[in-house]
Amino acid sequence: MEFTLMNKNTEVLDFLYDDETHNIDKITSLIHPEYAPLGIVDYKIGISRKAFNNWWRDRAIPASRSQFKEVLEELNISSSIELLERCFGLSLSDQYWVKEKNSSVRWESINFFTNKFSEDMGRLLMGQIEYSKDLDMFSPDNSSDGNLRKKWKIIDGKRYLIKSGNTFNNQEPFNEVIVCDYILANYDRHYRNFGAIRNIVNLKWKKIAPIYDSGGALWATTPTQLIGAAYKSKPFKSDAESQLKLVNDLSWLNQDKLLGFENIIYEVLRENPLMDELRISAIANQVKRRIEKVLMRKREIENNGYEI
Asked: What's the pLDDT tens digit per position in 14-56?
């Protein structure tokens, strides 16, 4: 079948799609390639079928999602890409979607930003309900990324992403409340976990996106006795201390804002009934030490310049 990749109501390109293998077979025409998602652009050759397929697969729920294999079995489908196909590939992270070529469907009538959506898929993915034949699968949950279970929910007209934590101590959702990065010893700040915001109408870059997805921090899955131990960081260097040395300007940092930050972390984590005093105190103490390292790096830059 032939489909069109859309950026809201702007046609980006046409392509042939194999609904048995769930692959893009061929890009048949470029219409407005400048409106394409950056993920389908190969920096050497431009828009490519390979990059497009990778972007499409990455849009689906990862197979590594906690307890997702059981959900697929309940739904009697072999690939999470099938769920994407049932909701036009829509997401609540951007404005891209696909439709059958020459279809009259418009963005205003189907997008999840302004239209209501079913919570059935989210509840199923979170293990709150069991599968039934009348399940409504038209949902942004079909395109939610990450390994931990999560769901989208509309509360008082606003869209919220509700996330679960690991089975050890459910720490990740509490980490999301706190936010920072080196200071929080975030081991999961990979290339897909930060970004920039672009106006998709005039294609101008607006700003760096606010920090997000900080669940994999504060030694969330580390045994208490190992809190503070070295960890493998991402993406620019494999250890956090080397990454910190890449920072060459901390003039913007108001160090007074960091005073007592470890106490805020302590109070937030105390709300988690699965974390004891020993663990919370160990985390707070390590954060205080990491703040001291950041301030030391600030003084080093100011006094001696920066290292390359």
From this structure: 999 999 999 999 999 999 999 999 999 988 899 999 999 999 9
Q: How far apart are CA 284 and CA 260, in angstroms?
A: 10
- In terms of Cα–Cα distance, which of 207, 231, 235, 204 is closest to 290? 231
**Nearest residue to 148 (alpha-carbon basis) of 62, 52, 247:** 62
Q: Which two tokens stand for residue 254?
A: 């108001």
In the block, which residue shows the tokens 């950056």? 38
**Of the candidates 49, 121, 128, 67, which has an alpha carbon nearest to the alpha carbon of residue 90?**
121
Phi-psi region of 306 (alpha: psi -120 to 50; beta: other; left: phi over 0): beta
Q: What is the pTM (predicted TM-score) of this model?
A: 0.84
Q: What's the angle, vertex CA 7, arms to CA 6 and CA 9, rounded to 5?
A: 80
Enter the tokens of residue 165: 């934590």
For 263, the enclosing helix (H) or strand (E) is helix 261-269
The CA distances from residue 209 to 196, 201, 276, in Å, are: 5, 18, 34
As beta bridge partners, residue 17 has 24
